[in-house]
Each structure stands twice: as structure tokens, then as C-alpha cells.
What does this fold into?
Amino acid sequence: MSEPRYKRVVLKISGEGLCSPGNSGIDGRQLLKLAEEIKLVTDLGVQVCVVVGGGNIVRGSAIAKDSPIEESTGHYMGMLATVVNALAVQDTLESIGVPTRVQSALSIESVCEKFIRRRAIRHLEKGRTVIFAAGTGNPFVTTDTGAALRAAEVRADVLLKATKVDGVYTSDPVKDPTATRIESLSFQDVIERRLEIMDVSAFDLCQRSGIPIIVLDLWKTGNMSAIVRGEGIGTVIGAG
It folds into this structure.
């Protein structure tokens, strides 16, 4: 088997990826599917970080619109939701033999480590999958930007953005049967066309750090491992 193209990857998955379609909360079957896909990659000797959102439990910006809760408080609630998700991912990964550590941007010493960049890198070097929780620890900043920041900090080779489709399309493939997958885009293309894949700040961070972003369908078995081996799956966003 050929050597993996990418040695250290950051996987960004939304909170909705942990629940069944149209529902909220956490679905054990979705968790196990995610864990199995990650294990296929770690079995190749690739170092993996995971950044998970919290929208399946609390979406901070939304909860503030329909309640007296201040938006900044809503964002902190969303950060705590990502910690809940991170712990769920951790236990599921370890149940199938993948050693892990959870690091949080917020201090919650009883359940996880505080994020320390050098410690995170050391965990990766020891073969542990590191799950980053609580975004950047700041309100008004999304977990997409948090994923880009962590990717830059740990010097990742690539940021994988998990979605429900296998890349970026010329139009919505659900509504338009003639839509075709775009194999590659430059960061400038994405920004100028205002493609709502990730936040502009996330693209900017990855562009400045020289980290490509690959948009993929994580729920198709073997997609993630195929990408780290260099197969042409998903849409690559890079300097182009």
C-alpha cells in the first residue's frame, strides 16, 4: 500500500453529523459510523484531530433570537454543547480501540484537558486522536474558524470539511440533477463566489497557513481514508 499523502489531518464535522437526519441530540449509530471512518485513517498511521460543532444540541446564535438569552451567552452554551459531543466521540472511538484525548478551549478540568498546542502535538505524535472542543473559546466565532485555527496551530497537512455531499457542486445537487462536482477551487474563487462552505475567516486562515481544505461526504464508507491516500475524491480548495 502506498504511503498516505497527508500525515496529519484535521476533520471538521458539524454537530448535526452526530444525529440522524432531521433530528437533534446524539445518535449512537452515527457516532459509530464516524468512529469507524476515523479508525480507517488512523490505521494508516495518519495523525487525526477532530473538531466537532454543537448544533445538534444548541445553536447559540439561534437560541438568542427566540429568548431573552444574550447572544454571547448563547454562544457559550453552544461551546459547551461541543464539549458534550467531543466526549461522545471520545468514548465511541475508544470503544473500537482508538486512543484519544479531548482538549477544550474552555477550562473544564473534570472531564477534559485545557487546549495546549504543544501538548496536542505530543498526543498526535504518540498516536492519539485529539478532539478539540469549545471552538476558540470566544463568542461570535464559529467552529469552522476554530477548526482552521487548530489546523494552523498543529501544522496540519489538510483540513477536511465533512458534509452530506461529496464536494462542491455547480448548483444544489438535491434540487438540480444536472449539477456536477467541481474538483478544485482556489481560495479566491470561494471568497469571490461567496460559496457558503465555511466562514471567510476560516478560508483566510487556511490560505495564509498554506493548508488546503477538502470538502467530502464523510458518510460514504472509505471516503476519508481514500482522501488521505491521495485519491481524487471531494473538492479541493487551495491556493490554485
Notes: The chain has eight helices and eleven strands. The chain has a mean pLDDT of 92.
